[in-house]
Amino acid sequence: MSLNSIFQYFVPKDKKIFFPLFEQAAVNVVEMATLLVKAVNAAEVSKRETLYQQIDKLENVGDEITHQIYLELGKNFITPFDREDIHSLATAIDDVADLIQGSANRMSLYQISEMTEPIQKLSDLILQASIDLQKAVGELKDLKNVRNIAESCIRINSIENQADYVFDRAVADLFLYEKDAIRLIKYKEILAALETATDRCEDAANVMESIIVKNA
Amino acid sequence: MSLNSIFQYFVPKDKKIFFPLFEQAAVNVVEMATLLVKAVNAAEVSKRETLYQQIDKLENVGDEITHQIYLELGKNFITPFDREDIHSLATAIDDVADLIQGSANRMSLYQISEMTEPIQKLSDLILQASIDLQKAVGELKDLKNVRNIAESCIRINSIENQADYVFDRAVADLFLYEKDAIRLIKYKEILAALETATDRCEDAANVMESIIVKNA
Amino acid sequence: MSLNSIFQYFVPKDKKIFFPLFEQAAVNVVEMATLLVKAVNAAEVSKRETLYQQIDKLENVGDEITHQIYLELGKNFITPFDREDIHSLATAIDDVADLIQGSANRMSLYQISEMTEPIQKLSDLILQASIDLQKAVGELKDLKNVRNIAESCIRINSIENQADYVFDRAVADLFLYEKDAIRLIKYKEILAALETATDRCEDAANVMESIIVKNA
Asked: In which family does this protein belong, per the annotation (chains A, B, C) (predicted)?
């Protein structure tokens, strides 16, 4: 039993503050991932640039939400879950947003014109993981459907494994077939940013699993 | 209200231990950043090498100070701020020092002879952010001038944004104009280390903002 | 004196849960490092591939152990050391395992045929650091031989310094003599993963030093 678990018996938990913020952060990540999937499947460069800019704006929105969670954490002695878990979950979701924006930013800066299959697959996996992230976060507020949270977390872990596989295969192929070192660097960095986004989804899932264990 | 806030009413805070250490750490970073700016503006290679070595020495000094803060944190049950904030602030300042040294180390190892404008600009931004870091850290001990801390933190955030912009532009230019892949790698890594130093200054600013909120 | 130090006088510590898990995690890292040293010294490619696969399997074992430690941390209010130290130590040991596997994975994906001297030296240093890690972790359960822990930690720090030196020298040599940019990228990334493994050993040593200080 954690310190928070003891306090929760005599102090009302203020769930009204934290849960809507987490839900906003997760919805924002799903929107960003949706834009990313659109961008890597768009035929026109100008269309892509517009999507990159929309991703940028949503990343700023995500920063605001994360900042708000940290501020509330500083102001509230009693929190619905362990403080460290609230902090870690907020950070993990923010990192997913940062990496989606970072991937899009590199595609724009490096003037990537050819969207390869691994880029499209990884973007798709990020969207899938984000949707499960949002589902799980939405269930945190009452913990009535712990099984749903657990299942989303398991799916996120499986998606992350698939992303690892796609990334490893794609990088090996780059080293085998790409003779232009500068192109190789560009694609490798974009693939790495995309793959790391799924790692951060897994981090968020791990925090939620830990929350379930503590509050079971 | 945090656990520390409760304890602080009946246990005297030992500010004498932590604040001088934080001030030393911040002053050390300002000195390192000053040497870095000198190095990237020095015409002679031998002069630069001397400066790189001085940066190395100061990084060791910084390590000692950080280690001391961690040791004191282990020995003291009551701390002037939340333990996690003291740990995070010490780590962030130490990371800035590591990245300044890491940038200088790469310049030396990669035998960078031409100091480009983005390298000079980023080094300058690191120095500016370090000076604001030192100012803010210096105000932590009595929290009489919370506004000064807040203003330094806002400036650090703005400097980090400028550094992001300079970095993105410089990397895009490398991919556009640098045809030598090995040179591209060298410059890109140095720019990345410099830019990350400003990120860690922002991390330190975020911890200080959090300290202000909790102790307001 | 920490919060845990106070509680430990009236609540029995459950050492039976955490220490065997830490010991398993450390033994697992030593086994992984032993396989890595074998792989980078193996003459036949097929032999190496078998060793890489064994490393992969042990990394999964390590993940399970780390997950178990996190779960126990969630379930137990009283821990033998500060919760944050248990978490940090488990994370640092897991990171060492990840980086050994990551290094092996890159050697396999990049189809590295020539194992250079710096790769062999760094692998050897990882093994040495892992052995000291295991020794120190094994002494944590009774803290009767604090000096042994301290000496292992000092040796790990010294090994990390040697690894830094080998890495810096090897990367400088790559930039001086390797004209094939793609080969340079491959080797540089493998060297970086190996060197970072020793950094994470040092992180683990730092946590153990902190545990000694708090419980002295």
From this structure: Belongs to the UPF0111 family.
